[in-house]
Design the sequence.
């Protein structure tokens, strides 16, 4: 399955990567790689994450790092709609 990003999710990822670029390179690389790998796996296993209470929205937790990826599965593709750090206020998934 193809994995695509909404403009919001692209902005989220860019902001996260800009923040990570301020960390030591080895740490930043590890977090980036894990985040990208988790998202890429959704193409093969689109229903691997639990559903949220918002119909059609799933929440992938990135193991070892405090990020969650929110996505929908539509028309044979995974659409990443939002990526966020877990220390932020809880997400109201109806905003997605």
Sequence:
């Amino acid at each position: 399955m193809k994995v695509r990003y909404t403009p919001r999710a692209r902005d989220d990822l860019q902001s996260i990567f800009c923040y990570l670029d301020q960390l030591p390179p080895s740490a930043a690389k590890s977090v980036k790689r894990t985040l990208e790998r988790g998202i890429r796996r959704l193409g093969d296993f689109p229903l691997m994450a639990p559903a949220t209470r918002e119909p059609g929205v799933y929440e992938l937790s990135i193991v070892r790092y405090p990020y969650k990826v929110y996505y929908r599965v539509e028309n044979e593709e995974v659409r990443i709609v939002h990526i966020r750090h877990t220390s932020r206020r809880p997400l109201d998934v109806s905003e997605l």
Notes: Helices lie at 7-20, 25-41. The chain has a mean pLDDT of 92. Strands lie at 2-5, 57-61, 67-74, 77-85.
